[in-house]
Design brief:
heterodimer; A: 402 residues; mainly alpha; Cytochrome Bc1 Complex, Chain C; 2 domains; 2 strands; 1% strand; globular; B: 241 residues; two-stranded antiparallel ribbon; elongated
């Protein structure tokens, strides 16, 4: 066995990789429950790949057959319901994890120097995931799929100059049909997915270059012991591998509870309008996006003018990219920045309120919430450079607190 | 950060997400009695459905064969009580007695396939809809519906419900008591709910085992984590290599 190990390691840097990324990758010892989200996201994406592969083996990407082929998976394929519910509910749970993961980064200042690139790559993955979710959403070709496809491609159409041509390219013709499903499937399962996979690979490499942040926002690399290792760091393996296995157990319990007892989550994870076949003659009373995209949809509606709404929505999506440079405080973690912490909590509440309002029909009584929410969301980013300069900070300890 | 603050943050996030899931529902739909959904009710509902609904409505996604294996019914019982005598195929989906062309001629619209109707409209809608018919001589069928005005479907449940005027006045009582009528509608809804998601009985049967296994796994993993982390908490300088 030792001989085989030597043989292999002369030809492939397995030992070196293990050392660099697991046994001698030092992570802060004060991670809290929010630090499970990264490894869980990786697990969930691998599961989406496997379940997606199995679904694709039974799916027919044509206008007349797509809906029926999905029902064939649900009714006639052995364990088909399990695979499809894993795939569909997996999306919503991935976005729960993504929002916790991104929220954690904001709470503890994980986007600050030297982790700007890590933040940008991570946020790019989030945007790519929204695209991946949308592409997958159209495939079952329920009536919601059809109209969601119409709405989103009409946003592409609104782009100046190239818009109309780009929309035809996206749809594969003038309308949503077989050509759309074929190219959406190809994008969803091949190109888009592998771009996400590559981005995740870069995200993890960038993380291991700079090292993990922690809830105290202290750089553990600045305080090394006699052995050259950070005093507040512990090797990722075995400490965090065993800890993450526990996290996986708890998370899979939640995941299974959803699949076995509330697979549609009362129409939130799997909307009612997805259960009638695509029909260009029957428009939906209101086309609302899934909950995880709804905040941006609410902001799109906040301005009753197509170009203005699209501008606000794109602004809302793009602003977090600049977070590393908008924050001017000398302190990273919100633990030692009471004002910033209050702002983050307000932003979180606003974001989920926008998600709720984005699911409601477009009625005048919601305009105030939509506009107020959009103002707070955009205001957070625009005011941060000013507030973070003068906000009071508490003293940051020398060592991490446990 | 103190434990209280940490959980405060979590509570805010969870409250936000709960806000997404709880949708305002200001309508006044009726709900079937709690506990109405179980295997005997689904079987009773399937039989009632075959007698009163499947003259017109298909449940094309659900095969008779599947119905038999999920509900523990014999092939003979399915053939006698659920399949129509017009040569429906045991291995295929549930078909209506009349053809789509005939239905279109008689009702103006082909009656919809009910495979996914409960998931599309909700249990409460179907349960209320079936009890909201009233007598309206201006309609071609003589029937109208409070929940679905000008619906093409006549009140096929009239023998049970009797004839009710728009203002709720009973013009002719049904042959069964209102309680029996509500019960039968609830059974039909139970069948349609099952038909829209036939994995439901398997899910509910396997659920406790899957969850139990995962909880046991989590407990063992927690114990393992605790063992490993002893030396982090006890003596930070003595780390495993």
């Amino acid at each position: 066995m030792a001989n085989f190990g030597d043989w292999l390691n002369k030809r492939f840097p397995l030992r070196e990789l293990m050392r660099e990324h697991l046994t001698e990758y030092f992570a802060p010892k004060n991670f809290n429950f929010l630090y499970y989200t990264g490894s869980l996201l990786l697990l969930m994406i691998v599961m989406q790949f496997i379940t997606g592969f199995l679904l694709m083996a039974h799916y027919v990407p044509t206008g007349p057959e797509a809906f029926n082929s999905v029902q064939g998976i649900m009714y006639d394929t052995r364990w088909g319901w399990l695979i499809r519910y894993m795939h569909v509910d997996g999306v919503s749970l991935i976005f729960v994890l993504l929002y916790l993961h991104i929220g954690r980064g904001m709470l503890y200042g994980s986007y600050r120097k030297p982790r700007e690139l890590l933040w940008i790559v991570g946020y790019t993955i989030y945007i790519l995931m929204m695209g991946e979710a949308f592409l997958g959403y159209v495939l079952p070709f329920g009536n919601l799929s059809y109209w969601a496809g119409q709405v989103i491609t009409s946003i592409i159409q609104a782009l100046p100059a190239v818009g109309p041509a780009l929309a035809v390219l996206a749809r594969g013709g003038a309308g949503i049909g077989t050509a759309t499903l074929e190219r959406f499937l190809a994008l969803h399962a091949v190109l888009w997915f592998w771009i996400i996979a590559a981005a995740i690979f870069i995200h993890i490499l960038a993380l291991h270059q700079v090292g993990s942040n922690n809830p105290d926002g202290i750089e553990i690399k600045e305080n090394k012991g006699a052995d050259g290792h950070p005093v507040d760091g512990i090797p990722f393996h075995p400490y965090y591998t065993v800890k993450d296995i526990f996290g996986v157990g708890v998370w899979l319990t939640i995941f299974a509870a959803v699949i076995f007892y509330a697979p549609t989550m009362h129409g939130v994870f799997l909307e009612r309008t997805t259960f009638s076949p695509a029909n260009p003659m029957v428009s939906l009373p209101d086309v609302t996006p899934p909950w995880y995209l709804a905040p941006f949809y609410a902001m799109l509606r906040a301005i009753p003018n197509k170009d203005g709404g699209i501008f606000l929505m794109i602004l809302a999506v793009v602003l977090p990219f600049f977070l590393p440079w908008l924050d001017r405080s000398p302190v990273k973690s919100s633990r030692y920045r009471p004002v910033y912490r209050a702002m983050i909590l307000l932003l979180a509440v606003t974001f989920f309120t926008l998600a709720w309002v984005g699911e409601q029909p477009p009625l005048p009584k919601y305009f105030l919430l939509e506009r107020g929410g959009a103002a707070i969301y955009v205001g957070f980013y625009l005011l941060l450079p000013i507030i973070s300069r003068w906000e009071p900070t508490r003293k940051v300890p020398e060592r991490v607190t446990s | 950060m103190s434990m209280i603050k940490k959980w405060g943050v979590l509570a805010v996030l969870v409250a936000g997400m709960a806000g997404v899931t709880v949708r305002a529902n200001a309508d006044t739909l009726l709900s079937p009695p709690s506990g109405y959904f179980n295997k005997p009710a689904v079987i009773a509902g399937a039989k009632l459905f075959a007698k009163h609904c499947s003259t017109c409505h298909a449940v094309s996604s659900l095969r008779y064969e599947r119905l038999a294996s999920d509900l523990g019914m014999s092939k003979a019982s399915i053939e006698k009580d659920v399949m129509l005598p017009n040569g429906a195929n045991y291995r295929m989906g549930m078909e209506p007695a009349m053809t789509q062309a005939e239905a279109k001629k008689w009702f103006g619209l082909p009656p919809p396939d009910l495979s996914h109707m409960v998931r599309a409209l909700g249990v409460r809608f179907i349960y209320s809809y079936l009890q909201s018919f009233y007598w309206d001589p201006n309609r071609p069928s003589g029937w109208n519906n409070h929940l679905f005005p000008k619906v093409a479907m006549p009140n096929v449940l009239q023998p049970w419900s009797g004839i009710v005027a728009k203002n709720g006045q009973v013009m002719q009582p049904g042959r069964v008591t209102p309680a029996v009528f509500h019960q039968r509608v609830a059974d039909i809804v139970a069948f349609l709910r099952y038909a829209s998601d036939p994995s439901v009985f398997i899910r509910h049967k396997l659920g406790p085992y899957v969850l139990g296994l995962l909880v046991a796994f989590s407990l063992i993993a927690y114990w393992l984590k605790k063992e490993y982390w002893k030396d982090v908490h006890d003596n930070p300088s003595k780390r495993k290599k």
